[in-house]
Amino acid sequence: MNTQALTRPRRMPAVITLLVGLVLGGVLMLVGLAKAGRLAAPPPPEILVSLAQTLDVEHQRIDLLVDQGKYAEAIAALEDLRSLNWPTRAQAGDAGINLRHDIYGRLLRLRLDHPKIDPQTPEQLLTTANEGLGNDYDEVSTNAFTARLVAISGEIHELRKDDDAALTAYEQALDMNRTLLNRALAEVSEGAP
Amino acid sequence: MPNEALATMSFEQLEAELRRGEAEMRAAGVPVATVAMAAPGGGMTNAAGGDAAVGESESYDDADGDVADTTTSTATPTQQPAPPPADAPAAPAEPMMEPESADEEVSAGVAAKSRDRRSERKQRRAQCTNICDLANTMCGLETRICDLAAQHPDQPRYANVCIQAQSDCTRAREACHAC
């Protein structure tokens, strides 16, 4: 009897070894990416739909207040929305973040345009801007709402006399708008005969 | 067709000429209301249709000299043609396409194309509005950036961003004008 055959482990064919390695590597990669949040499951649509509907109604109300020149009430209505339980990016995706940026951008635009209404210091305005932007605003796909809020934060930095931070914010906003312009021009040329 | 030739034509010939012209216009994509006139007693009638009769049948000689049946209707583009009366001349040996059904098909196609064109124009207007809004935003940023640069002449970073912003503003404005 060939004892070597009994004691020596059977050697797997090289191809199968390679395949197992690839599969294991892929699984480990997926687990890692999922843990890093890069492969987050799509957010449940109800959260986003509910938020969008609520904000749509509020925007219309604020439009009316602004048209009537009731800026204080419009600012108060937008301030109330700050206390909403804003969903995270994992919960509502980029669209949820865009909605938040839209509201905060609108609030800060009104405050900057009407500084005597419920006056706030530049530091308070910056707190609001940073609250609106959040920690992951630069991960969101380029959109007009984020670009506007970033540009507004630049204006706030100017009020704080921090020109370097203002320039950084303006440059970032310019980059975003350039991307949006390129996208818009590409759409036009796609539709051209 | 010269006016002299028109003046010598019978009413039936004039009507045939009118139909031919309508078909050509529809083929060119020009929507045309289907209006046909009846000639009481075979005489000329006012194009406004003051003497038009409903449901009368007319026969006419078309350009090829064939006698063809026509059915007439009141001056409403969507009305269905009335059936020919019993004493109408016989239909020609060769079957002719019913002008009304062919015209309806052409009109439906023209209407669909017209809707598509309107939709495209609307979309294009929205795209151009977007581009011009972006131009306003970018040129506003250029103003702010270059004002900062003027306050920091010793810092090349400010000047560089200002130059970039000016280039972006110019490009965006040109895109808006071109749209």
Number of distinct beta strands of chain A: 0
Taken together, the total number of domains of chain A comes to: 2
Rounded average pLDDT of chain A: 87
Oligomer: heterodimer
CATH superfamily name of the largest domain in chain A? Tetratricopeptide repeat domain
Tally of DSSP β-strands of chain B: 2
Major sheet size, sense and barrel closure of chain B: 2 strands, antiparallel
Which class do the helix and strand fractions of chain B yield? mainly alpha
**CATH architecture label name of the largest domain in chain A:** Alpha Horseshoe
* SS element count, helices of chain B: 4
Point out poorly predicted stretches of chain A. Answer: 1-8
Gross morphology of chain B is rod-shaped
Class from secondary-structure proportions of chain A: mainly alpha
Runs of chain B with pLDDT <50, length 5+? Answer: 36-92
Distance from N terminus to C terminus of chain B (CA atoms, Å) equals: 42 Å
What do these coordinates show?
The complex is a heterodimer of chains A (193) and B (179). By secondary structure, chain A is mainly α. Chain A folds into two domains: 3-35, no CATH class; 45-191, Serine Threonine Protein Phosphatase 5, Tetratricopeptide repeat, CATH 1.25.40. Chain A contains eight helices and no strands. Chain A has helices at residues 3-7, 14-35, 45-67, 71-82, 89-113, 122-133, 144-159, 163-191. Chain B has 179 residues and is mostly helical. Chain B has four helices and two strands, in the order H-H-E-E-H-H. In chain B, a hairpin with a 5-residue loop joins strand 1 (57-61) and strand 2. At the A-B interface, helix 7 and helix 8 of A face helix 3 and helix 4 of B.
